[in-house]
Amino acid sequence: MTPSDKSKPRVLVLFGGESGEHGISCATAAGVVEAIDHDRFEVVTVGITPQGQWVPVDFSSDQFQISEEGVAQVPAANRQLFLSPGDGHVVSLPTQLGPEFSLADLGSFDVVFPLLHGPFGEDGTVQGLLEMMHLPYVGCGVLASAAAMDKPTTKILLHEANLPAGRWETVTASQWSHDRSGVLERLAHLGLPVFVKPARAGSSLGITKVSNADAMEAAVIKAQAVDPRVIVEQELTGFEVECAVLQGADGRPRTTEPGKIAMRDDVVFYDYKTKYFGEDSVSLEIPAKIPEHLATQVREIAAKAFEALGCEGLARVDFFVDPEKDSVVINEVNTMPGFTPFSMYPKLWEHMGIGYSQLMEELISLALARPVGLR
Question: Which of these, 139, 119, 159, lies nearest to 304 by C-alpha position?
C-alpha cells in the first residue's frame, strides 16, 4: 500500500469488523472488489480484525468468498492502520511498538466504501468516524445508519411516517434484569407466534421463532447473547419480499421490482444458515410473482421508508407481502446490504439493467458528489 499519484479516484474498501457478521462482510468485500472497475478507480483494501484492529490486506477475492468450509476472517498483521483526523490520511504503525519503529503515511483517499455489517460498522459508528476525518463514504450517514440498525427505533420512525411496520415490544437489559415477570406478561399481549431478535444485528443472528410461551424466556436469553437490547415482533403473514433502493443523482430514491425469498416448505424461517448456506432450500424469485398493485405498493413504500429514515446512497427494504390479506408490511431496512453471490441487492439491480460494476460506479460517484459534514 503506497501513496497514489491521484491519477484516478482512490477508494478505501473497509471490511471485516467486530460484529457477528464479520465473515459475511468479508464475502461482501470479495464481490465488491472484483466488481469495481480498477481501470477507473484505485482500490485499496483495509480489513478490521474481530478484535478491532485496522490492518492492511493483500486482497484476493477467492480468499474471502463464502465456501463449504464457512466464512473467512481478516487475518492479524504485524502492522496496523490509523486515520489521521481532519485530512483522511492513513498512517501505518507496527502492531508491537518498540523503541525503534517506522511510521508510514500511506496517503489520503477520495472515498471510503465501508462494507461492514452489524454493530461497530453499519450502525453509525464508523460513519461518525469518517465524518470526523472529513472523508466521503458510500451509503447512509450517521443518523440513518444508527436508526436502521436499531430495529425498535426503525419501527418508531416508520410508524411516525404512517408506514406499515407491524406490532412489537422492546426488552432492555435493565427491564429483563429487574422485572422479568412483567416483561413476559407484556410480551404475552403480542400473542403467538412471535419472533425474538437482537435489536441491533443482521444476517438473522440470534433469532428464535417462539410458538410456545414456555420457550419465550430462553429465546430472549439467546437474543441477549448477541445484543442486550431485544425486540419481540408479532409474526407477519405472507412471504418475504425485498426491494432495493438506490439514490439518484438528484437525491431521489430509485427502486427495483420486488424479489421474493422462496423457501422449501420444511424451512421454518430465513435464518443465518439458510441465508448463506442453503442453496438447496432457498431461491431468489426475481421479479416476485405477486399482484401488480402489491408490487407497486412495495416500491412506493420502500422509497418512502428510505426518505423517512434519512437514508443516502443505498438501502434494501424487506417486506412481508400477503396477497390473501392484500397487505404489505415492512420487516426491516438494511443500510448496507450484502453483496455476496447469494445477495438479493445486486441481483435486483441487475434485473433492472444495472450490472454489478455499474452499480459500484454509481455508489462511489454518489459518495464523491456528496459534501462531507452537515447536509
Answer: 159
